[in-house]
Amino acid sequence: MTNGGADYCFECIGLASLMVEAFNSSREGWGKTVIIGVEMHGSPLNLSPYAILKGRTITGSLFGGIKAKSDLPLLAQKYLDKVSAFSI
After folding, report:
1. Dihedral, CA atoms, 7, 8, 14, 20, nearest 10 degrees?
2. Digit-coded pLDDT (tens) for 5-16
3. How far is CA 60 from the centre of its chain?
4. Beta-carbon-side half-sphere exposure of residue 27 (alpha carbons within 13 Å)
């Protein structure tokens, strides 16, 4: 369907097996997998080092990339001040 794999894959459930499936679904050479779900069972990821060497990447995103220590108080203050959070 994607003719070689997806450019971007996202895993939002939090299962190690689906994280591996998302990674394996990414395109060789430049495919990127973003892990959003949290694996609660402590299961390891079994990824092929060869696939990484061929250009696939895997990264994580916690809280959508905000810095909790500095950004959450700022967002809370903006909410209290009735300022749009999108104007950060």
Report:
1. 20
2. 999 999 999 999
3. 4
4. 11
